Amino acid sequence: MKYEKAENILPQSIIEIIQKYTDGGYIYIPRKDSNKKSWGENTETKKYLKTRDEEIFNKYLLGVPVKTLSNQYFLTESSIRRIIRKQKSD
Questions:
Q1: Mor transcription activator domain spans which residues (predicted)?
Q2: Tens of pLDDT along 27-50?
């Protein structure tokens, strides 16, 4: 999300109406429902986490202890267990 100057995109009459509610403040205007993107859609984060979680699960199946995985991936033991449970159910 980037900031745009209201003067560059809105008519003066609309700016004046908005100023009645917030004068000089920041407001967030959400996307229309039809334009919303799912989390991670613009980045490779979703793909990275899926690969990481599969890797964690495979190491667990090979006998790597949860504590070791926790240290290797800088995650809490409960996060590792959650990932393992999710991978088992998928």
A1: 10-89
A2: 888 888 888 777 777 788 889 999
> Angle 39-40-42 (CA atoms, 0-180°, nearest 5)?
115
- What's the pLDDT score for residue 1? 65
Q: How many Cβ atoms from other residues are within 10 Å of residue 57's Cβ?
A: 19
Alpha helices in the chain (DSSP H): 6-9, 12-21, 45-61, 66-73, 77-89
Rounded Cα distance, 13 and 28, in Å: 19
Read off the amino acid at residue 46: K
- Model pTM above 0.70: no
Q: What is the dihedral of CA 81, 85, 86, 90, to 10 degrees?
A: 150
